[in-house]
Amino acid sequence: MPARDKPALRLSPGAGSAILSELFADSPRDAGWTGFVLAQVAPARPLLWIQERMAILEGGRVHAAGLGPLAAELIHVEARDAKAALWAMEEGLRCPALGGVIGELWGDPQALDFTATRRLAVAAEKSGVACWLVRLQGSANLSGARERWRLGSAPSETHSFDPKAPGSPRWDAELFRSRRRLPGRWVVGREPPNLLPVAAEPGDRALGQWQRRTG
Amino acid sequence: MNRRICSLWLPNLAIERWANGSDAPDEALARPVVLTLEGRHGQLIHAVTPAAAERGARPGGRLTDARALDPGLEAEQADVAGEEAWLRAAARWASRWSPLVEVDGAHALRLDVSGVAHLFGDEKGLMRDMEARFAAMGVTARAAIAPTAGAAWGLARYAAEPRPVHDEELARVLAPLPIAALRLSAVANHMLVRLGLKQVGDLAGVPRKALARRFPKDEHPLDALDRALGRKPEPLTPLPEDPPPRALLPIKEPVVHPEAAAQALARLVPPLARELATRKLGARHLVLTAFRVDGSLGEVQVATSIPTRAPDHLHRLLSGMLERQGIDPGFGIDAFALEVRWWEKLDSAQDALLGEATGETAVAALIDRLSVRLGPSKVRRPVRVDSHVPERAAGWGAGVDTDPSPPAVAAPPADQPTRLLDAPEEVAVIYATPEGLPRRFVWRRKVHDIARAQGPRRISPEWWRERSTARLRDYYKVEDSEGRRFWIFREGVVGDGRGGAPLWFVHGLFA
Fold it and tell me: What is the bridge-based pairing of β-strands A20-25 and B379-384?
């Protein structure tokens, strides 16, 4: 598909995304998705971040010092299992004062069926709070999420001062189901204040070309 | 019972409070300063410094008269409300000596020290302790201990050397004191002096009727003398302690039904919320107690993150906690009590016009609900800790005890990972030279080839906390060939004499 036929993608923090988005991380050892999600969370409002115990063991605990200004308003919940995590997410979605709810679940728990995701989706739209259901090591089964993403890290941009250092991060984002826009696959970078596709489809291209495009 | 009352007089409270508020109290007291009040006919002098007293200024006089004697007087506004507040606070503080403390007039405290003195040596030691502790605050104090409040009051003010006085010598000690020691009004004192009764002892032979015509009923000098000598009672009214807000529900027949607690709760929360509203308080920590017939207690406790008195919110929290823990009725429960253990001031506030909770209140209520269901240790907010070691600097505090004034801690360095592993995980590395950066590392059985790296950022161990063998850490931000970004560190350097070859660890993941 040529680049000009790509569907447009513009993601900005807190802009009308009060829906349930499901996000599948490429691997639990890859925290790239956190940057992608945090760039879309409304700033200066409390952020409820729920991690299942297993997600903490596998993918690490949220580190407030790395979240920048969002850390001041962070509420972190450590849930015993998926059931408790889903309950806490739903409880959070009933509070319209929140800027966003992020819930991390490990694998394909029993509690997470179509009904549970549908409840989350309805609650998110009713209260106008963006909800991200993050699935580590999960499979894309039946779900009531309005948007479903698959996300991995992509090689970062060139660092302006140090060519050997990792620069500003980029992600390989695939939207494989959505009601609002055309699905597609993009390499997304952070262009304050928006997230923008910075390159076309990462396909069979060598890494060197990326760096040339941005350099 | 032999009562012992201590009167604690702070003669120069006003001027000393003013001097302690300035930068150099001693220099301030050496200046000719008078504190003045708005009187009906101009400024009245409230208190004077010693230097001003030498120049003729007297408390109670007019400022203009004192200025006529010495035009160099400096006048400052007196702060009577501040003195009263200070004295009330001092009365609370004086409960270190006795549980019964009372503010006694403008510049004095009254304490019931019956059976207290042995804790401070003896009564002399107690008086010395009081005077020393007030002196440490920069306030002069004179204490006197006597069997009655009236006698202690007079001795503290008019005795040359106040000392503990006992019943048998009371009349003898009071006799040489001036008549003002009886604590009558200025008019009555003046009248008695005109009658030639200048000392307390002069009243001894005077018939009661002769004085009754000249003084109002509650100003009778002989009554005052009787009170001072202990022939008439003079009770103390200690400072009232605010009782904790509480609602009680006694039950006629002991209940054994497990649902009884939930039903009792529904009847206890509204009156408690009303009491909180009238006292303008908000609850932070509530306890529902069930009194069983066999004398044991069952308890359920909840905490809230901001002071609240919303009945539906409190009811929801407590019923959630009841569902989780439950109260075993045992042989039956015959009373329930809902008590607030920790409360804070909460004035009426309006969130929104239509009464739906917004912002802070809603988030606090959410934190409370989550904490009740999942446990307060699982719902947390980040707290900054002053430390360079990342896992120590990333502190967490329970959401329900949010600190309104967090400690000022330096901002963490930029470019930190968004995830931190609870414990750094050791990785196997392959490197060209042991000092440098590895080429690849194996973490959880997966090989990562390092494509780019930034670092090192060296963090030394905190030698005042850790063992002497703790090694420094060199942190690198690395990106593997697939674009995943890690925070890895080498613990120690080659040849630092603290162990063998340095090990590598993964500590965090970047976005």
Answer: unpaired
